[in-house]
């Protein structure tokens, strides 16, 4: 068994190991010179196996930094240089020396946009402001003349923590030596914030530096030197360096703030940038999804802003508006797939979890269907959930060919009310009640939200008169009628008075089971049409006003009293006529008998006087009833008598 490790300039010296049992070959301590084609041949049985070995250079970098991939050339000859991103097998840069072309390509959803720089002399590629999505294999190929290639593996390290949480920056050590010294530094000025000196047997945290932002927040592990930061804020985002006996290990700590927002489908929502107040920034970027493609950005240094609404199959076409002053992003015509947005600025990040819901309304007692939007069941599984606690109320499994409704949950409020459409996956709720109002979630390969509002059926409003007697305006003789429109046991409604089609007044309430009333004053002789309307977003009830039925004028009352007076006067005239006839009869008889006549005359005179007094009393009583105070009128009554 022999290895020939001295061949080819000795590049394999002391690096080859041959397994006597299996024949496998091991190459240790590989270098770029070991990359190439290897062939295994057997003697007894003619057979060969070819292996292509690629040896890549491992490069580690922290997020936000720049990295340069070098080929160690001092000058490019008459060759083509191709840079490929092997993870996606995409050409990202090309140098054609003969044609004098130096090109970089904005591929893979724009992840390399404005980040690639080519060295025209050496062909080296620099990636600036690197992020974790740039992790992967990079391959350099030089064509023309002698063909050669070189591979790199770039690893981008980022430590992410949610605001107000704790995070540990691991040293990577299993234990410290007795002579070991560890220092933790922060920021562009490499401010010392923690130190362990085993030789001096000391461990110190300097949490009062930098305006005290680390006060009572730093904890050191005395055994392995790891650093823990508790109750993180945006001020703790940045670059940390671990120095172990002169060796530097960098960490980029990103602090993320999480915000929950909701918006109606086809509406608009503005995602507020609240990071610029924390520290000076040079670049603000908006991404869709977790570490997804850039959809908008502001270069603070260049004072430029850009919107990339053509990414992701143009789903954001003409729907993005970027405020160049504040960095806030507005999304119009919202869709259910507009779910997660990231705002990054230096090493600060805000994650917006956006819920886009479809608004659905139904009258109490009616049925409602929550549609999946599909014509056929093309999901493996469908789950319907309800409420803030996300309770499962129905599901369909296409693989198991089963469907199930769970109508006994939540105290049985859905009992005998849930139906599933097995063809489309839609959910039907029958005989709806107010307690069925809320948010429903459809879980498939994505999540859709439906905000259901169940409205009570509306009563017809009641109009009543609020006038106890006749009244008139102090500035004119025009008389008014006071009315009130009222409803009882209503909620989420608006009560309004209309004059024709014009709104006069209204009152709204969002509470449940409340009584409402709305006053109105109209003129008695008014010819306009009035109506009282009770409405909610999906229904209304109207009551029209009949002025003649509810309002009686004072002139009507006076006319009635005048007729009564005429009747009384007619009766009094008849009584006086009778008295006159009686007097004439007594006067004739007085001639026959003087004594009798004198007696009768005295009686008639007394009767006449008694009649006169009776009429006076009746008229005085009538005057008090009608409150007629005019002396001339009373005088006319006496003369008539």
**The CATH topology of the largest domain, please?**
Immunoglobulin-like
Number of domains: 7
CATH class of the largest domain: Mainly Beta
Class from helix and strand fractions: mainly beta
Query: What CATH architecture of the largest domain would you give?
Result: Sandwich
Describe it.
- The protein is 15% helix and 42% strand.
- It is mostly beta strands and 641 residues long.
- The chain has a 16-stranded mixed β-sheet that branches. Strands 5-13-12-7-8-9 form a six-stranded mixed β-sheet, with no helix packed on it. The protein has a four-stranded antiparallel β-sheet with strand order 42-41-44-45, with no helix packed on it.
- It is elongated.
- The N and C termini lie far apart (162 Å).
Summed up:
The chain has 641 residues and is mainly beta. It contains 6 helices and 45 strands.
